[in-house]
Design brief:
Layout lengths: L1 E3 L17 H12 L6 E3 L6 H4 L5 H6 L16 H20 L4 E3 L21 H11 L5 E5 L6 H7 L5 E8 L15 E6 L5 H17 L4 E6 L16 H13 L4 E5 L7 H13 L1
Parallel strand pairs: 1-2, 1-3, 3-8, 4-5, 4-7, 5-6, 7-8
Helix pairs in contact: 1-9, 4-5, 7-8, 8-9
The structure holds zinc ion.
């Protein structure tokens, strides 16, 4: 299992904010000391404008350097532009590794799936998973699926990829919940699986599996996963019920598709995040 990460992604912080550096540093610590999954570590160059501008407007890219908060949840930080480019760069590297046949996770922050073409929101600045999917399409992949199991709807990814030929987006998320979208399918290629709060694990798994079956029918050459771990029973930001073994099962289910897959960390705010990520990696690699 290859992990693409970089200690720079833990160097910005808003005190008290749930999207905090410890999410990554505690995960790195656990992955270094565990023996279940053999890990190789990699770094990536930052994403360049040519890649970013497939998913975002030039105005949005310029706005990242204006020192004003984006919304109440999404602060401006010094060098947030570089941090977001590093995170998108790691997703791009993960995409390249998957195409070479490697199992790979981009373990970075900030996350990306709420960032739209022209707006930072929901702790997200650049939509790393869309940037990587669009780069794959621009470099020879004909069909790429995006599977988003973060508990929040991937509104930014949906808005960026809406009706883009060669892409299909599948989001499984709590509804109602932030950001309020994702109640129904949109366009030709965005398929939403809204799940009521407090849905029992067994049922939640069933819905995750239905979305995977749907994804299989799209016959993708490559799968990009927005891997958020906030549908966990003890996550502070949502009201779902999954346990670590459900993430292991989800990893296994993705592996069994037998297709190149790369995963990009999105949300997950409980102190158990490192164990959840390890369970997922166990499933996707063993
Ligand atoms: Zn989330």
């Amino acid at each position: 299992m290859k992990i693409v990460t970089d200690e720079n992604c833990t160097s910005y912080n808003a005190p008290g904010h749930p999207e905090r550096p410890g999410r990554i540093s505690a995960t790195v610590e656990l992955l270094r000391k565990q023996k279940d999954v053999p890990i190789s570590w990699a770094k990536a160059p930052p994403a360049e404008n040519a890649s970013i501008l497939r998913a975002h407007t030039p105005e949005h890219l310029a706005r990242l350097n204006v020192p004003e908060d984006f919304d109440a949840d999404t602060a401006w930080f010094p060098n947030i532009d570089e941090r977001a480019r590093a995170s998108a760069g790691a997703a791009l590297e993960a995409m390249r590794c998957a195409r070479r046949g490697e199992s790979v996770l981009s373990l970075m922050r900030p996350p990306g799936h709420h960032a739209t073409r022209r707006k930072a929101m929901g702790f997200c600045y650049l939509n790393s998973v869309s940037i990587a999917a669009l780069e794959a399409l621009a470099t020879g992949v004909e069909r790429v699926a995006i599977y988003d199991f973060d508990v929040h709807h991937g509104n930014g990814t949906e808005a960026i990829l809406l009706d883009t030929p060669g892409t299909a987006f599948f989001s499984i998320h709590q509804y109602p919940c932030y950001p309020g979208t994702g109640g129904r399918n949109v366009g030709d290629n965005c398929f939403n699986y809204p799940v009521p709060p407090l849905t029992p694990r067994k049922e939640y798994r069933h819905i995750l599996n239905s979305a995977l079956e749907h994804l299989k029918n799209f016959e993708p050459e490559l799968i990009s996963v927005s891997a958020g771990f906030d549908a966990y029973a003890r996550d502070p930001l949502a009201q779902e019920t999954l346990e670590a073994e459900d993430y292991e099962w989800l990893g296994q289910s993705l592996r069994k598709l037998g297709l190149p897959v790369f995963s990009v960390l999105e949300g997950g705010y409980s102190d158990d995040l490192p164990e959840l990520i390890l369970a997922y990696l166990r499933g996707i690699t063993l």
